[in-house]
Here is the input.
Amino acid sequence: MDTFLTRRKNIIMSIISLVILIAIFFPIYWMGITSLKFEREIFQSPPTFFPQAINLTSYTAQLESGDFNMFRAFGNSTLISFTCMAIALVLAVPASYGLARFRFKGKKLIVLSFLVTQMLPVSVVLTPLFIVFTKLDLINRYLAPIFADATIGIPFSILILNSYFASIPKELDDAARIDGCNRFAAFTKIFVPIAMPGVIVCGVFSFLYAWGDLAYGLTFIREQAMRPITAGIFNFLGQYGTKWSYLTAFGIVTIIPVTLIFIFMQKYIISGLVAGAVKG
Here is the structure.
């Protein structure tokens, strides 16, 4: 009886999981086939679930030199995302180590301030950042969206890595001193390798946030050729109509890095998040 109930429960859970999976991936599938359709077929009724004729113009047109250059927008997003990730890790790793391993006044207040920054919506900080970047002459430069995206990646990384470094036994500090390691050597050779799953998670998060950002790239960069790939989608939203095949093709290209990251890094991402949750 127990075996029958367990089997039935597994079947029901499998069916529910399959329905949820279809619901999640159907929009991506629809976006993909829409990018391969001609405009007249996109609005055809009843809709077609596979293109009657393959249209690659929506992809090839974006490779030409013009406002819709996919490679240029892809390169802009890559530059912004990798730089933001590097800045976030370089600053967050030692900061989280210091918060976790040293005692000083105001420590809880600092950690709380990092937590508060995660609750602020982009619309709240957009205007102050625009004023600051205008004074620093950073508008229409790559550094503006890079620094803006880093303001999200750094606090998140510190909060995640703080639990990693705090959970490491203090005996390792004593062992490192006995072996002749100073603070910096112990940090780079012992603590950072132990916290590497968390570092990978923080790096992936910082990259993905910068890659998917729209508000900062659209606000701080005015020149079309310098805008990231998310802001480039607005090229296809016209006053008198929308080029849906071009827009969906651009969207497909945009999610390629995200998909590849989760395919090849899912083991590290899951282990990092689970370890961080347990240690926290």
Residues 276-280 have pLDDT under 50 and may be disordered.
